[in-house]
Design goal:
The chain has 248 residues and is an all-alpha fold. It is built from 8 helices and 2 strands.
Length: 248
């Protein structure tokens, strides 16, 4: 009886270590939820997984190694979201600089940092679609199946690290395709602005063209919202391909 209780306690904390990086971090899929809500959800789902997990847990002497392995696996899951969301923020900041929002920003209350306007708007859109399209359910199903494929305490095979660079490259390409139309159009406006400035150097063309650039950028962004849904879905699918590759 006492041995079973010890195993259950270790099982709870091992699952907690596997789930906590992605569920608690402000860089994960639940970043816009209050900290208290994230902690409660973490404890609730950990308890649910403990209650229904049928995979035996081998409690051995190397408990510290087991907990470290689970934490590293959890941070690997978190990194998938950081890489995907980070590329969106990167190109959002690039567009901010292009259209004249470089000095502006939005305070992220979770990280206490100033983020790009366009990047933050798209990140909020992606985070909302993550739940609307049901990918949060797929995330929890991934965690559930991971207990059978990688039993608790045995997540010390880090072969998935070989896929880090290809995944980051794919995220970068998809984010570039997402923002490519507005980047190219604003670049053409900049080229035209340079040509006009060369032809009429006495005219302060920068202050004349700045409102025009902002208007063009926002119009193009609004026009491509509908077509960007497919690119966002592909980003989600790529993320879960990487996650399933971690346990296969």
């Amino acid at each position: 009886m006492a041995q079973a209780q010890v195993v259950s306690i270790h099982e709870f904390f091992l699952i907690l270590a596997r789930l906590s990086p992605a569920m608690i971090s402000t860089m994960g899929p639940f970043r816009y939820l209050p900290t208290f809500v994230r902690v409660v959800l973490l404890l609730v789902f950990t308890a649910i997984f403990v209650a229904y997990n049928q995979t035996p847990v081998a409690v051995e002497s190397g408990l510290l190694k087991m907990y470290v392995a689970e934490l590293i696996f959890g941070f690997g899951v978190l990194w998938v979201f950081v890489a995907a969301y980070g590329t969106v923020l990167f190109f959002g900041r690039l567009i901010d600089l292009q259209i004249g929002f470089g000095a502006a920003g939005v305070i992220d209350p979770g990280n206490q940092t100033q983020e790009a306007l366009i990047g933050t708007a798209y990140l909020a859109l992606i985070s909302t679609l993550f739940f609307i399209l049901g990918f949060h359910r797929e995330l929890f199903m991934f965690w559930w199946h991971s207990f059978a494929l990688i039993p608790l305490g045995s997540a010390d095979n880090w072969f998935w690290l070989n896929k880090v660079v290809p995944f980051l490259t794919s995220c970068f390409v998809l984010a570039l395709l997402l923002f490519a139309p507005v980047i190219l159009i604003i670049w053409c406006v900049d080229v035209a602005t340079g040509a006009v400035s060369k032809a009429m150097p006495q005219m302060n063309i920068y202050f004349v063209m700045l409102p025009f650039k902002i208007a063009i950028g926002l119009i193009v962004l609004a026009a491509m919202i509908k077509s960007s849904g497919e690119s966002i879905r592909r980003i989600f699918e790529l993320m879960f391909q990487q996650l399933h590759g971690m346990v296969s």
